[in-house]
Amino acid sequence: MNTELRPQERIFVALDYANMDDALRMAEQLGDTIKTMKVGLQLFFNSGPQILHRLHEMGFQVFMDCKFHDIPNTVAGASDSVTQHGVYMFNVHCAGGVEMMKRAKEAALKRAESMGILVPKLIGVTQLTSTSQEMLNAEIGVPGDVQSSVIHYAKLAQQAGLDGVVASGHEIEAIRTACGDDFVTVIPGIRPTWAASDDQKRIMTPKEALQAGAHYLVIGRAITHAADPKAAALRILEEV
Fold first, then answer.
1. What is the CATH number of the domain that holds 54?
2. What is the pTM of this model?
3. Per the structure, how many domains does the chain have?
4. What is the pLDDT of residue 177?
5. Residue ranges for the binding site?
6. What pLDDT, on the 0 to 100 scale, is given for residue 1?
7. Domain assignment present for 17
């Protein structure tokens, strides 16, 4: 189990809202319980970079979850741009290949150094937690099991110099075996025992994920859809 981070630094709250006002209201409700907010595609495309700066002004770190996947030059440009906004972490799809991931990392490093800011953590997306075995084989057309695909992508991400990967909690131990304990794992699909699983297939409780060695947990609806979001966040922090 990774013990270097405090509980409030391990959890990213997924602000899956359609507009900035609702997202900021939720962040304000959570106060100082959680340190990092995750901004995904819907919120970012509705609010633009302003949401990143507003959250920073409120004292939060930001994980920008827009999963870049394009030709290497385009992704390098996107990495340069997002780094300028001072995000704590952002991600790319491992399926884009080693060259794409390398260029993304190089662009982030160069921009951060030129601005004198911290280099954002760059994380590779392996397989989405909504991907079942049947979907992987029959729809996506990738043979073998989900875990084998995840480990393959994790090794490519490490080869490219990325800081870690996004994966299901069920792959944490295999990733640690393949890539080492210091290779960062960001785990979505986290559901406390008292929360519904919704549309994600490969889920795990916060305690189980951390005991398996996860570095960061992404938690959305279990907190943001709770009757009392702050109380739900504190309950999860107590569990971890």
1. 3.20.20.70
2. 0.91
3. 1
4. 97
5. 16, 38, 65-74, 129, 191, 200, 220-221
6. 46
7. yes
CB of 79 within 8 A of CB of 91? Answer: no
Task: Quick: pLDDT tens for 159-203.
Answer: 999 999 999 888 999 999 999 999 999 999 888 877 655 554 556
199 is catalytic: no
Which two tokens mark 26?
């939720």
- Picking from 145, 127, 129, the residue whose alpha carbon sits closest to that of residue 137 is 145
Residue 1 falls inside a structural domain: no
The reply to whether 32 belongs to the active site is: no
> Is 2 within a domain?
no
| Residue 62: domain span | 7-239
Non-local (6+) Cβ contacts of 191 within 8 A are 197, 200, 203, 204, 205, 222
Q: pLDDT tens digit string along 6-21?
A: 888 899 999 999 999 9
Q: Quickly state the pLDDT bin for 204 (edges 50, 70, 90).
A: confident
Instruction: Look at residue 57 and tell me if it is in a domain.
Output: yes
